[in-house]
């Protein structure tokens, strides 16, 4: 062990001295999820290859978002690499807060990044963050319950089918809810889900002149459908359920269907945690025949703040962590089911990865989302489950609170939509969009 | 005439006190129990109370993933340092307000307390910019100063309340015996107010230990205390409740032990002057 460590250190030193580079210690802010934690475990590989050391700051998603936003907007310089999402990247790129990733090495093969991911992490055609992993959303369902209900899940189901199947699978006595969906307030929780549901019903947040559209019939249709289906077949108290609550219910066999992040597939099919691991099937997120599925697009990506003092080391890490070699490193040690998904085209061409049960559906779901054209009618914004403007997080959190109040039975759909319309227009007017 | 307390009433009072105590302690107990479960047992419905396969695996994972000792040391330095610094500043301030009050003393006290009424996030950006300019970002020294300033109004208020209970005549007598101002504060006032100072000290250590807004926002990798250690195990996308509980147990254990051993001083200080 000691010999191995010494040889690793010697190799690192030789590489550093040979390249004439100075070994740096970089600080990376990241989120606490399975793939990111796994990456931290392989830091030694990066250090051995480059000589650079890494210090990790791991935070809960919302805390991280607040923390890195404060730092980058004040040019604090506390971090050399930040883990950010598709919402922040185009906004921060436009503000000049991020280093453009136009100097990546040839070996890195930037053209291998999935087109949908590259589009979502760019501003004016320039890539500002490299995707570590990407995700969309899809239907996860219990094959045994579907069979018992005498139904067969199509590859691309409609909302009507989902509602019918949910009602058929619901068994209140056995504590089985036909469908589990997010109702929790928050733009990234229930707000994201109802936005993509709205997209599939032809609704949109804004028209081309940035006028709120909650007074249009498409939103009333989407929200009434959602509330109706959840009342019939959803779990009690779904107004406070987010990803984790639904994951817990599904893993305990209490949901017939769950529509959520594709990254959940590895959790619900893991026999160590899930009681229904061998009974899970996958399908595309539902639609209403209007040409848009109710699925989102998201990536956790690595970006370098502008003005970074350790640019070379930061770029070396970014290339290492999002490279094909890293994927192979994880596959070699932990199997193909555990590699970071949704970032590179070559991964989905790999026969070993194609054997993973949720690989194809994840790729199909990612490809079905178009952040440049997310809705049936034209919109002035980019983003599928969000609108890539700085004001969106605040507005959408308030709107989702109004919608959650409907799910909790505290107000009607019409009341919530009227409030959403008023508060969104007020905020957009104050921000100078209207 | 003292009121006689019947045996039945004693039993009822004791039972009620235990019930309230257990109710308050239950979230901590549940966190500790969850830390010994597997992730699947942690979310099981109905929940399991004691009949599960106890495991230390979560503690092993946490110890392997995080440098616990660094977080712990940062917490000790920041919480201890800010409290001691606060006491050093607050003792003379509270002395002057208690024994040499002016017309505006009450207003000053109220104004000091009013700084606690502003939401912390309201001054995040000014403080952050100041920290960047002074090179204090992600330093234990910077955080010690901020936490001391945040808790200073409470320290002054508490000490002022304790000092007010001490008869001014005693200090006057000391002065007549030739005690200087320093001697008066150090050798007469402070020993008499030890229970009050001790409880103020303990309460502020607890407040500083648990402070999670500034400790998360002004640190990165070097000065992050145990609040950041806990935050690194919380996740909205993934069920890691058992590991989070293990991290939480490790974070609260030192302060829980400190509170347990010093509960006598804490209670005597908090009830100081309550009975005349």
TrEMBL record, chain A:
UniProt cross-references to InterPro entries, sorted A to Z: Bact_solute-bd_prot1, SBP
One protein family per Pfam: SBP_bac_1
Localization in the cell: Periplasm
CDD domains: PBP2_TMBP_like (cd13585)
Residues annotated as signal peptide: 1-23
Alphabetized UniProt keyword annotations: Signal
Family, per entry: Belongs to the bacterial solute-binding protein 1 family.
Protein name, as recorded: Sugar ABC transporter substrate-binding protein
UniProtKB/TrEMBL annotation, chain B:
Chain ranges passing through the membrane: 12-33, 71-96, 108-129, 141-163, 184-209, 240-261
Domain ABC transmembrane type-1: 72-262
InterPro entries documented for this protein: BP-dep_ABC_trans_perm (IPR050901), MetI-like (IPR000515), MetI-like_sf (IPR035906)
Places the protein is found: Cell membrane
Chief location category: membrane
Keyword Membrane: yes
A Pfam family: BPD_transp_1
Keywords assigned: Cell membrane, Membrane, Transmembrane, Transmembrane helix, Transport
SUPFAM superfamilies, A to Z: MetI-like (SSF161098)
Bilayer topology term: Multi-pass membrane protein
PANTHER family in the cross-refs: INNER MEMBRANE ABC TRANSPORTER PERMEASE PROTEIN YCJP (PTHR32243:SF18), MALTOSE TRANSPORT SYSTEM PERMEASE-RELATED (PTHR32243)
Family membership noted in the UniProt record: Belongs to the binding-protein-dependent transport system permease family.
Name of the protein this chain belongs to: Carbohydrate ABC transporter permease
Organism: Ruegeria spongiae
């Amino acid at each position: 062990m000691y010999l191995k460590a010494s040889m690793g250190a010697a190799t690192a030193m030789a590489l550093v001295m040979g390249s004439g580079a100075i070994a740096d210690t970089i600080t990376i802010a990241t989120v606490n999820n399975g793939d990111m934690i796994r990456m931290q475990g392989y830091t030694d590989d990066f250090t051995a290859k480059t000589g650079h050391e890494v210090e990790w700051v791991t935070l809960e998603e919302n805390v991280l978002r607040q923390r890195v936003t404060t730092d980058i907007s004040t040019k604090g310089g506390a971090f050399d690499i930040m883990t950010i999402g598709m919402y922040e990247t185009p906004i921060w790129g436009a503000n000049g807060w991020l280093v453009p990733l136009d100097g990546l090495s040839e070996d890195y093969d930037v053209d291998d990044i999935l087109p949908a991911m590259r589009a979502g992490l760019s501003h004016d055609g320039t890539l500002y963050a490299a995707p570590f992993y990407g995700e969309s959303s899809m239907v996860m369902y219990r094959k045994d319950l579907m069979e018992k209900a005498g139904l067969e899940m199509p590859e691309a189901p409609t909302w009507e089918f989902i509602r019918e199947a949910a009602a058929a699978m619901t068994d209140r006595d056995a504590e089985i809810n036909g469908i589990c969906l997010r109702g929790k307030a928050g733009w990234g929780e229930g707000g994201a889900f109802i936005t993509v549901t709205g997209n599939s019903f032809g609704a949109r947040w804004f028209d081309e002149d940035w006028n709120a559209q909650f007074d249009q019939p498409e939103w009333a249709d989407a929200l009434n459908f959602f509330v109706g289906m959840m009342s019939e077949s959803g779990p009690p108290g779904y107004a406070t359920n987010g990803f984790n609550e639904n994951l817990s219910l599904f893993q305990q066999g209490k949901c017939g269907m769950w529509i959520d992040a594709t990254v959940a597939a590895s959790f619900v099919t893991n026999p160590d945690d899930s009681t229904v691991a061998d009974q899970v099937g996958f399908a595309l997120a539902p639609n209403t025949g209007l040409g848009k599925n109710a699925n989102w697009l998201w990536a956790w990506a690595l970006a370098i703040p502008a003005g970074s003092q350790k640019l070379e080391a930061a770029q070396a890490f970014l290339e290492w962590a999002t490279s094909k070699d890293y994927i192979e490193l994880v596959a070699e040690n932990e199997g193909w089911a555990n590699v970071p998904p949704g970032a590179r085209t070559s991964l989905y061409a790999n026969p070993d990865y194609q054997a993973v049960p949720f690989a194809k559906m994840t790729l199909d779901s990612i490809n079905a989302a178009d952040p440049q054209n997310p809705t049936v009618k034209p919109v002035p914004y980019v983003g599928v489950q969000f609108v890539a403007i700085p004001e969106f997080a605040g507005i959408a959190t308030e709107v989702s609170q109004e919608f959650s109040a409907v799910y909790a039975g505290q107000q009607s759909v019409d009341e919530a939509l009227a409030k959403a319309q008023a508060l969104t227009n007020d905020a957009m007017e104050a921000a100078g969009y209207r | 005439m003292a009121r006689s307390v019947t045996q039945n009433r004693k039993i009822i009072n004791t039972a009620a006190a235990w019930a309230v105590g257990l109710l308050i302690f239950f979230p901590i107990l549940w966190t500790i129990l969850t830390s010994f479960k597997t992730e699947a047992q942690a979310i099981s419905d109905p929940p399991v109370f004691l009949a599960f396969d106890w495991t230390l695996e979560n503690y092993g994972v946490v110890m392997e993933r995080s440098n616990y000792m660094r977080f712990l040391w940062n917490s000790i330095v920041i919480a201890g340092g800010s409290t001691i610094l606060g006491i050093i500043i607050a003792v003379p301030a509270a002395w002057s307000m208690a024994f040499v009050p002016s017309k505006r003393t009450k207003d000053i006290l109220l104004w000091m307390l009013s700084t606690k009424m502003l939401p912390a996030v309201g001054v995040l950006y000014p403080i952050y910019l100041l920290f960047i300019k002074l090179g204090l970002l992600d330093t234990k020294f910077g955080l010690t100063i901020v936490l001391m300033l945040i808790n200073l109004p409470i320290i002054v208020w508490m000490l002022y309340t304790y000092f007010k209970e001490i008869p001014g005549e005693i200090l006057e007598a000391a002065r007549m015996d030739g005690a200087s101002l320093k001697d008066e504060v150090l050798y007469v006032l402070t020993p008499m107010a030890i229970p009050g100072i001790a409880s103020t000290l303990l309460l502020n250590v607890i407040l500083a230990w648990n402070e999670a807004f500034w400790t998360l926002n002004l640190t990165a990798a070097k000065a992050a205390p145990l609040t950041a250690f806990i935050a690194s195990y919380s996740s909205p996308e993934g069920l890691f409740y058992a590991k989070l509980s293990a991290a939480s147990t490790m974070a609260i254990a030192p302060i829980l032990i400190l509170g347990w051993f010093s509960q006598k001083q804490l209670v005597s200080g908090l009830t100081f002057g309550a009975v005349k």
